[in-house]
Automatic annotation (TrEMBL):
The gene is pyrF. The keyword Membrane does not apply. Belongs to the OMP decarboxylase family. Type 2 subfamily. The keyword Lyase applies. It catalyses: orotidine 5'-phosphate + H(+) = UMP + CO2. The active site is at 96 (proton donor). This is Orotidine 5'-phosphate decarboxylase.
Amino acid sequence: MTTQQLTQQIKKKNSFLCIGLDVDLNKIPKHLLKDEDPIFAFNKAIIDATHHLCVAYKPNTAFYEAYGLKGWKALEKTIMYLNVKYPEIFTIADAKRGDIGNTSTMYAKAFFEDLAFDSVTVAPYMGKDSIEPFLAFENKHTIMLALTSNEGAFDFQTKMVAGKELYKQVLETSKSWKNSENLMYVVGATKAEYLADIRNIIPDSFLLVPGIGAQGGNLQDVCKYGMNDSVGLLINSSRGVIYASQNEDFAEVAAEKARELQEQMEIILSK
Ligand SMILES: O=C(O)c1cc(=O)[nH]c(=O)n1[C@@H]1O[C@H](COP(=O)(O)O)[C@@H](O)[C@H]1O
């Protein structure tokens, strides 16, 4: 999917919501545990109930890898289900990869070719030759951590390096990489006050913004400082949507939570 197609979907649905599929078997409704594949059964129900309210889904691979082969199988079934039934949805493998070049190429193949995700998250720590193998894939997007939502973001990301905060160095340097037009960036919703500075460096790029809901980030602040002419934002909520109810009505209640966020987004988009 191209970024133009993503923007079209945002305008059509009046939503720039991304729903995080972070499935924890201890948190899903008990009746699903009897299913042959509880993770996929949960995802399918959530997706069927919410696909019209969001433009993207983001399974965090940790929640699948934790269950071994069964978890990876459920991830594969989930992405196949999305690609076949809802091909207009933008898909994000939240895997936070990045390694020496030949290894990064294999990670990219795993998520872009084998699983056919539209995008994957990566960490910038190993630099240009760890990210360019991902950027080489046409019509695929590489979402690089810039300023993360957690407290530990202040350990390194905001430290001064050669007269500038490290996250700013990351943003600026990455613009010179080959196929950098395939980059998007992660900025935590809890860091909304940094977004004006970030937009000065990367005015046109899409930002994946996790951290509203459970982590306390604020949608209005993120939009005020982070939105550009083509919206340029994907706002993620995982736990706040998918675990709103742990009863049999879980998918319905998740849809209500997603609807609340979509309606706030519609108001922001109409301004
Ligand atoms: O890359 C991410 O998606 C990410 C980056 C970040 O800075 N903070 C962050 O919370 N995330 C992910 O976004 C999701 C947030 O989940 P909730 O806090 O439940 O909405 C999790 O999958 C996190 O791993």
